[in-house]
Amino acid sequence: MPEHAMSEEEEPSVVQVSTQYAVSLLEKLHGFYERSVLTDVVLVAEGAEFPCHRTVLAASSAYFRAMFTSGLSESKQSHVSLQGVEAATLRPIVQYAYTGQLQLDEYNVEQLFETASFLQVEEVVHQCCAYLLKKVSAESCLHLLAFADAYSCLELKQVARRMVEHRFPALCRQEQFLQLQPQLLMEVLGSDNLNVEKEETVREAAMLWLEYSPSSRSQYLSAVLGHIRIDALSEVTQRAWFQGLPPNDKSVVVQGLYKSMPRFFKPRLGMTKEEMLVFMEVPSGEGPPGPMALASQVSICYSPQAGKVYKLSSLPAGLRKLGVLVTPDNDVYVAGGTTPTRNSAGRVSLSPLGLRSAVNSLYWLDAQQNTWVSRAGMVQTRIQPSLVNCCGQLYAIGGDVNDLESHRRSVERYDVRRDEWTTVAPAPFGWQWCATVEARGRIYAMAHDCTFSYDPAADSWVEVAPRRSSRCFASAVSLLQYIYYIGGLHTSGGHCGSLRMPSGTLDSSSIMVEAYNLDTDVWEERASIPARRFSDPCVRAFVLLGSLCVFLRESHLAERPRYAIYRYDSITDRWELLQQIHERVLWDLGRDFKCTVAKLYPSCLTETPWKPPPPTALNPYGELDSFEDYDDEEGIVIPPD
Length: 641
Known about the structure:
The chain is α+β, with helices and mostly antiparallel strands. 24% of the residues lie in helices and 28% in strands. The chain has a 5-stranded antiparallel beta sheet with strand order 32-4-5-6-33, with no helix packed on it. Residues 39-106 form the BTB domain.
């Protein structure tokens, strides 16, 4: 046998088909389509003709595969008329069959989804669904819920429904809600995850839907009311509602409410939410020592009412130095920041920023799932941008990268519905850091002794009254007709004309508080917070239970630091102790932690193993100790493992 002959035991080698060959073959088929070469079938939609190849159509569409291989007369027709299919929608689907490329936008995605579903082009259906998933928002969720339900897109339906449940109080009066199909409406009304604080909201939504078309919907009265949890309604509501019903409806209503009895005592998710302090960029204390340990951080929540600590989902990709925002609708966002820089081998490598590089990412917290959802990235990368919500839009102001003045002055606006960022008028200042708040439909940015106001309608900035002190790294809060500027480092010679931030010093005598009166355009000094108890300027201001509060790190001589929440009484111009928190409850938070307040669901979070003893009672209406009455008692015992 010749040496090159193959023995019986040997198997032929398999040559892997290259990607280049596959692409080349597809390009040639597309060229044949463009020139109508060797085409053997013509698709007709709205009178427009598309000469195609049966094999290509059959390979990309289960609909055409069944048609051309059925052996029926249709399989041999030279022209196939597609009733109800628009030519403008068929064209990109045919192009996708020959190129694998699909251009999607908000104007064509739903039509492409419908046609691709009809023609069973699964790849196009999948891409359309993925596109729509990113577009689910408070403005679009009702429409997308009905759309996904009609076309049995389960993943899109699930995500859209979660958004409807989250924004239920605001959505239940909208026209799109009142037009929901009966079965879909009842799915929503029966959900345990409705973000409602009172069952009355669900009852009103049900009645609005029934009254939208009484003649056609009376048959659903009993079924719809079966999803209302009667025991959660107040006695006054129950009595007034039942007495106001027409006699013929009373028995039907009773039947419907009887059906809901198994769920009488189960509260909706929104009834369980609590105002919590959210701490981000907190050192975890885990991992190896050294510089890399700095990347080990966690996000936690603290419930002042329950005195419990919960673990929030970790920030994506080890994000640090980011901007944090909680909107009036209780949506939590983080944007910008830095992530570890890695080389082509996946290992951390050095960069001009040390071991980290700036990013432009934006994430939204899905509170029900306790997960961070990626949204469209900002136009520019930003480190510690100031985030603020104004007129339903998000704004990212400043942030520092490579000491660029133009970068620090830039401002972007995020359209939640479109999931898009656009640049707006740049700020007249080039600060590396600023505190921002929204008040009366305007944005106020503060640093040093200056305050600037941005009008979204005019897309312009103006300077307002200067403050009496020059400070940076302070906390700012808007409440009623005032903007409060609290704490921070005193700066010397730091007028708004300075592009670089001057060195700062901590005033050891007090933590200063100033209030800007929106009615009079005047800054006023308010009672300072004595600083003798505080080891550093870790002062975080927020609104808790409707009152201005601050979170502080206290220092007690030989004792380890502990934390406290103080509330401001605007009538007496006095700061009062609201709650003490030992460091064993909230471990060392470091110096760079972010702190904000959000209403979260304890059942959706993971409680930490450490269970502290009951803290000082949180009573926003009762007597509260002042600084002079501060009790230095201690005696917390860690329970055994």
